[in-house]
Amino acid sequence: MNLIELLDQAAARWPRKPALIEEGNSLSYADLVEKIAQASSRLRAIGLSPGNRVGLFCPNSIDYVVFTFALWRVNAIVVPIPTECTGEELAEIAATMQLQAILSHKPLGEDISLAPGCYFSRVISESAPDNHGLNIAFIRFTSGPPVRARACALS
Q: Which residues contact 13 (CB under 8 A, 6 or more apart)?
């Protein structure tokens, strides 16, 4: 069982219970699953494909959770990017991780607005990423130069 399936089960069992609480705002399990479905539908509509690596350059928030799960619903690979990164660091991460897109809390160039404060930017990668035949869900960075990453697979 993976996190998407677990969330769907929780929503079926406790649809009105709070799933997320942020600064006095809460989102029920049913509402969370609905927002994730809407976001994943928008991501598919703009051409995001399974296996695409997408940088998530957004502050921790309800939207961060929604877009993480929406990317997983599309079978995209989530690469969290710290919001304190400079433009140069962001470009280095995009190249090193072979990202196809970045979801950002601020415009980065030629963007598609997916939601208030959430922008989708395509990245032209010099080479197609090699996922080594794995169903990767998440790649996170570990400390220390050069950029290092660890991948987690969906079951």
A: none
